Amino acid sequence: MNALEVAASVRAGATTAVEVVAECLERVATRNAELNVFIHLDAEGALASAARVDERVAAGASLPLAGVPVALKDNLCVRGQPTTAGSRILAGWRPPYDATVVGRLAGAGAVALGKANMDEFAMGSSTETSAYGPTRNPLDPTRVPGGSSGGSAAAVAAGMVPVALGSDTGGSIRQPAALCGLVGVKPTYGLVSRYGLIAFASSLDQIGPFAHTVAEAALVLEVIAGHDPLDTTSLPEPAPELSSHLDDGVAGRRVGLVRELVEGADPEVLDAVRRAAETLTRAGATVEEVSIPEIKLGLSAYYLIAPAEASSNLARYDGVRYGLRVDGPDVEAMNVATRTVGFGDEVKRRIMLGTYALSAGYYDAYYGQALKVRTRMIEAFARAYARVDTLLGATAPSVAFALGAKTQDPLAMYLSDVFTIPTNLAGEAAVSVPFGAGEGGLPIGVQLLGPARSEARLLAAARVLEAEGGR
């Protein structure tokens, strides 16, 4: 099920948006109980939206995503629809507004089916910390789909929708894309509006697409990108042209195979990255090995910066303004009781880490030091991009791991994002594309990284790898 084909068919009148959405809802009904992908399904609203798309098409509107069903990560606000960020503490909350990306999808003719499961407040790498239970990988239901956008990735991998939106704070689009055999794009920070995205770490969060193909991901990114005055961090420029550059290829490009972005990876993952390098070489690129030692500091810096920002952002969930409220004899007791019941263990762990890092006497030693490391990493990437155009590495250290395999070992879980976190710290662009298979025939993802605003170049390179398919 290809988004481009669906949209073309609906625009041509060969099918209707209502028919397409109805077919997708049937697929959801078939597998959702097994996989736990959608935690809120708005079937009636989706069919009504599809009918409006058909009316717009009949009136002559040319909609780039006409009738294309989409899944939304449950941290994206939709007016009047339950939006929980995978947490008990937001149970019952219905936003009074749409996220900017939600409005842009609707404007382009896409139809949202509902909200996809996620790690609670996007804190996790397996979609096992959700208050609504884990999501299973459609390719092997005994394994995780990755996280934190595992529900969005699983929705596409299971054929429930052609495309989906996730958010990427430390790899939460690219890692599940790799584990589910999809294309996942983490855009340049500020390219896509964060207005209406429930915040985890505001200086790191970014919204992006999941799709089966590079062309679909490029089209969705074109639709949702561009300046938004409602987001003060939004770049003051229009959405980039991406689809028209997909066939630019890599001839004459310089690609750096990053030593630190394969160290510790399983042998089959390392082999896939090497074969990807060979593919780019055959396509006309010059590939050389590069080293960015600062990348090794990324995990430590991230787990100070992200929890610190989370402890601040999540302070608003106090039992007073919205969501869960557990009564107590006074305001302080109510607040403590609400947060104790409402937050899961992983969220509590990160709030405590962040609060400690920001506390008096420790700020300079921890949070301040992490910000200096982040600056060093940004400078290191800049030096690398002065030498090469694009960087290449693994997306995840392994294929999808078994459910429950890492839930009792937070450090092992954190290491699942060791190759993706550096790009978030730098605020730059990255794409994960499927390339070959490993254990049990499960997909492997390779990662292409570039400087800010290099999405067109990265997607063109990803298209080259996609054509080869990891053979």
Detail the topology: elements first, then pairings.
Blueprint: H1 3-12, H2 17-35, E1 38-41, H3 43-58, E2 69-73, H4 100-107, E3 111-116, H5 150-157, E4 163-167, H6 174-180, E5 183-186, E6 207-211, H7 214-224, E7 254-258, H8 267-282, E8 286-290, H9 298-313, H10 331-342, H11 345-358, H12 364-387, E9 390-394, H13 410-414, H14 421-426, E10 429-437, E11 443-450, H15 455-468
Parallel strand pairs: 2-3, 2-4, 7-8, 7-9
Antiparallel strand pairs: 1-3, 4-6, 5-6, 5-10, 9-11, 10-11
CATH class of the largest domain: Alpha Beta
Q: What's the number of structural domains? A: 3
How would a crystallographer describe the biggest sheet?
11 strands, mixed
N-C termini distance: 23 Å
Radius of gyration: 21 Å
Task: Summarize, please.
With 471 residues, the protein is of the alpha/beta class. It contains 15 helices and eleven strands. It has three domains: 238 residues, Alpha-Beta Complex (Amidase signature (AS) enzymes), CATH 3.90.1300; 134 residues; 66 residues, no CATH class.
What would you say this structure looks like, in words?
The chain is α/β, with parallel strands linked by helices and 471 residues long. 39% of the residues lie in helices and 13% in strands. The protein folds into 3 domains: 238 residues, Amidase signature (AS) enzymes (Alpha-Beta Complex), CATH 3.90.1300; 134 residues; 66 residues, no CATH class. The relative contact order is 0.13.
